[in-house]
Amino acid sequence: MLAWPGFQKVHTTAHSAMCRNNLKVLENAKANWANDQHKTSDETPTWSDLIRTNVGYLKAPLACPDDGIISIGRVGEAAKCSMPGHNL
Predict the structure, then answer these.
(1) pLDDT of residue 28
(2) 80 in helix, strand or coil?
(3) How many domains does the chain divide into?
(4) Helices (H), the chain
(5) Which of 21, 33, 40, 80 has the smallest number of CB atoms closer than 10 Å to its CB?
(6) Are 42 and 50 in contact (CB under 8 A)?
């Protein structure tokens, strides 16, 4: 039982890092979409805008490994996760 708290911390840290990485990928996709589509920083893409197969900003919607909700947000603001500690 002594190893469990350490394992839980590693698990939590790994999931947080994975989610933050997904948010970075999402930020890159938003920037590319805005540049290609001549959008301003006040515009918000949808998952459909970012997953178009002919453009390929993303292959699929990105998810939080802890089932947090990822909010795309406007081009000029950071994407967010509903889980504490998962944001950029």
Answers:
(1) 96
(2) strand
(3) 1
(4) 3-37, 47-51
(5) 40
(6) no
Instruction: Decide if 87 is inside a domain.
Output: no
- Residue 37's nearest CA partner among 60, 54, 62, 59 is 54
Residue 23's Cα: distance from chain center in Å? 3
Q: Which residues pair with 71 in a beta bridge?
A: 80
Which tens digit of pLDDT belongs to each residue from 16-73?
Answer: 999 999 999 999 999 999 999 999 999 999 999 999 777 789 999 999 999 999 999 9
**Residue 76 counted as domain residue:** yes
On whether the pTM is more than 0.90, the answer is: no
Q: Is residue 86 part of a domain?
A: no
Instruction: Select from 84, 49, 50 the least CA-distant residue to 69.
Output: 84
For 33, the domain range is 3-81
